[in-house]
Amino acid sequence: MSAAMKSSLSNKLQQNVSSCKILVVGAGGIGCELLKNLALTGFSDIEVIDLDTIDVSNLNRQFLFRKEHVGKSKSQVAKESTLKFNPDVNIVAYHDSVMNPDYGVNFFKKFKLVMNALDNRAARNHVNRMCLAADVPLVESGTAGYLGQVTVIKKGLTECYECRPKATQKTFPGCTIRNTPSEPIHCVVWAKHLFNQLFGEDDPDQDVSPDTEDPELTAEAGEKALEKETEGNGKDLERKSTRVWAVENGYNPEKIFSKLFRDDIKYLLSMEALWKTRRPPEPLDWSNLSDATPSSATQMRDQRIWSMKECGEVFGNCLGKLKVDLAAQGEDGMLVWDKDDETALDFVVSAANIRANIFGISQKSRFDIKSMAGNIIPAIATTNAIIAALIVMEALKILNDQFDKCTTVYLNRKPNFRKKLLDAGRLDKPNPKCYVCSAKPEVTVVLNTQKITIKFLEEKILKGDLGMVAPDVEIDNGMGTIIISSEEGETEENNEKLLSSFGIINGSRLKCDDFLQNYNLNITIAHVEKLEDEKDFMVVGDMAELQAKLEENSKKKEEGTGAALEKSKEEEEDDLEIIDDTEAMETAPTDTSPKKRKADELDCTPTAKKQKKSIGGDGDADVVEIL
Amino acid sequence: MGEENITEAEAALYDRQIRLWGLDAQKRLRAAKVLLIGIKGLGAEVAKNIVLSGIKSLTILDHTQVDEEDKLSQFLIPREEIGKNRAVSSLERTQLLNPMVNVTADTDDVADKNDDFFKQYDVICATCCPSSILCKINNICSENNIKYFAGDVFGYYGYMFADLGKHEFAEEVPKMNQKQESSQQGEECGDGEPAPKKIKKDEKETVVVKKEEIFSRLQSALDVDWSTTEIKTKIKRTPTAHFITLAIFDFMEKNKRRPQLSTSEEDSKQLLECRKMIIEKNQLDDKYLPENFIEHCFAELSPICAIVGGVLGQEIIKAVSQKDAPHNNFFFYNGVEGTGMVDKIGN
């Protein structure tokens, strides 16, 4: 033992720690704790990047921030607060998105190590690719409530972040949302769609009116309903966009309420097949709403259940306010739903509860609906502190040339049968078929080439699902037809064209290249007329996997749609997939449910060696979703 | 306790945690008076975690002075405070973490406090204390129904101990009954004929059950004779950090201080003696208390403080809120092995 010992670390390790340059991605819940640990452990050359600003709901855990910092840059304030713990640290703070092209491969190559403290999958995918391209080890992390995870990613040695498919956001069939809601979340999704239909971006997938193409209706029943529709009393408004209709009626609360909650419901009732085994909905009358309060009136507005009368009043008031907000956006303006906008939230709370009441579904408080509609993942200081510390423990092994000792660690809620509260497991080898880190990344995309546009391919498939940031795409047809260019303006005229119009058919191959990520991907197109569950596309590893999936789907079909949905739900649970929210997803208008696993369920499951869990992120800043 | 409603300001600040543990738990936290003894690296983590959570008050009791080692883990003390009292030096930054918590510093030696002093708290958490003091306070807490915690970090190693007496708590468990809990109007119940389409399965569907956990005192854990045949079989599955802790406890009793970086060479020799004593007394195999622990047990490594302080902080929150199963009765973290385990030692 050396008499010159200056810390708990060996001299050599201390040397390595103090001389290496590291990047911290994210200065939120995990990031704040991480920066503190790094500064105290002796790291002295740190760069930190975060695009976010400080919100009051961060302050219960992001302890580098205080009330007077609300609204300021997270990375900047985190830097200043960290310097107080150790003024000798050199910190560079970027108030920016790590996905900005300024941070290319050469930027990442500067670092000995990268540590992720992120809250969304898009950024995790991107940093994963940048670290693979720059060949820099990455320590990945995430928390959700009491649970957390840390893992290490190193090109060629371990699985990358994208080696295993992640559970996608849970979506609901359109007919469940539009015709036969049975859970509170269905009503919340419907209410968010309604918001977008009335004030936001028009998305045909977010129709809120009754769906006559419900697969449960026999052809006859559907036609019957259609006939009724055309029969008379001016029901042609079904064919008119909700927005146009609302504008024409000046967003008149009574008219909108009556259409949505009386006439549309009566129309649904006419689809008798739907109500043979279900409780039929009960239309409401604007002038006769009950003021019976289901919960104690002494509770806070946020916590109690509103009466129908109160819901109606709030609904009407919100329509008025949102109409003004929309007008302020100018012509062609639109509103983006935001859980932190009081009016937008109130609108969804009232509309969702009115619909719930109609369908005999339990009503929810404003507090609960904010969680559901905003996909909020709860977050606490202690979990973040533990996870941030585990990141440093893995980093120390890497810097001590003990890469073989690196692990993936889960923070459990209760000790497992081996007494482990922190469960460490060996890192797995890369998946040779990974569409990101394998030598020749390949993937098959199943879609209808006569329905999918170039824009959809770029935005929803390449960027949305396959994690690219600025792709160039050419058809591998010997002529090198470029259909998407990352250069602005070069291929814009292609946007609305269908894939088929470029001769893309079943078996066509596309060469995709993301220059920023230094990532090339070959896509094989598999053409189908229609996918299960109203999906527009499906990404599969290869044709064999596709075959398996199609077979599974047809099996499910035999079991009936409802049963199939239940089943897929259970399957997800067996994977111990937790999550996933993320602000990024909040901005995307999707039918997302806050698919949060109850931690208790995790507890009951003995962690088998090979079982993989995935923890997804804190709505605000902290989390993950690993493996 | 805590019957008053949460204010709007509290609801906004604590939003993300109320969504996890609920309003009732938050109200209980708001009523809790906590005493934290010792504020080095681990104490700082615990203080941060529970002050952020929104307890009623925190008293920081520490009679020792800030030294060089604090720079490695004590983020609540400004660098220029070397030589000053730890509790006082930590006060300002602790208070800034959450203005709604009443934070005070006490510079007395815990050994000089009379029994009545401890009785004003709901929770007492003792760090940096020799085991004789830990046991003494434990006894006072037991007799007065005070939730008691102890913990410490030695380099790469750390432990947490809890004695909550007879602790009642609520736990959410997945609901087995398929019948709808009809808390609001208009709920259709699965009366008789289960709706073929829909047995409502709210993802959050759980029931709250009351449970109870009985704890034992620290002394009984220290008194375990690991050489007896019925206990011997348990050694293999007992975290090595426990035996390392016993060796360091022995050192602290003998020297009336912790092992220190500034005297690490000499302390290491003594620690090896302590190790030998523990091994002989318990007839342990060498591997359960490896000699090389002396290379890793000095000062407090910041991430180890964060891990043990995170677990300890959460256990305090659980104990106060009476929600969720507490860890009964030890948590050990071993940063050399990378293991974090809960174990029940003593009876």
From TrEMBL, chain A:
Alphabetized GO MF terms: ATP binding; metal ion binding; SUMO activating enzyme activity; transferase activity
Pfam families the UniProt entry points to: ThiF, UAE_UbL
Ligand binding (Zn(2+)): 160, 163, 434, 437
UniProt keywords, alphabetically: ATP-binding, Metal-binding, Nucleotide-binding, Nucleus, Transferase, Ubl conjugation pathway, Zinc
Gene3D superfamilies: Ubiquitin activating enzymes (Uba3). Chain: B, domain 2, Ubiquitin-activating enzyme E1, inactive adenylation domain, subdomain 1, Ubiquitin-like 2 activating enzyme e1b. Chain: B, domain 3
Acidic residues compositional bias, start-end: 201-217, 571-584
Cellular component aspect of the GO annotation: cytoplasm; SUMO activating enzyme complex
Span list, region Disordered: 201-235, 551-627
Localization per Swiss-Prot or TrEMBL: Nucleus
Basic and acidic residues: compositionally biased ranges: 221-235, 551-570
Residues binding ATP: 26-31, 50, 58-61, 74, 119-124
Assembly information from the UniProt record: Heterodimer.
Protein name per Swiss-Prot or TrEMBL: SUMO-activating enzyme subunit
TrEMBL record, chain B:
Keyword terms of this UniProt record: Nucleus, Ubl conjugation pathway
Region (Disordered): 174-202
Main location: nucleus
Biological or metabolic pathway of the protein: Protein modification; protein sumoylation
Homology family: Belongs to the ubiquitin-activating E1 family.
UniProt-recorded Gene Ontology molecular function terms: SUMO activating enzyme activity
Any one GO cellular component localisation term in the record: SUMO activating enzyme complex
Limits of the THIF-type NAD/FAD binding fold domain: 14-339
Organism: Patella caerulea (Rayed Mediterranean limpet)
Pfam family, one: ThiF
GO biological process, one term: protein sumoylation
Biased composition annotated in UniProt, kind: Polar residues: 177-186
Name used for this protein in its record: SUMO-activating enzyme subunit 1
Assembly mode: Heterodimer of SAE1 and UBA2/SAE2. The heterodimer corresponds to the two domains that are encoded on a single polypeptide chain in ubiquitin-activating enzyme E1. Interacts with UBE2I.
Leader peptide range in chain numbering: none
Location within or outside the cell: Nucleus
Lineage: Eukaryota, Metazoa, Spiralia, Lophotrochozoa, Mollusca
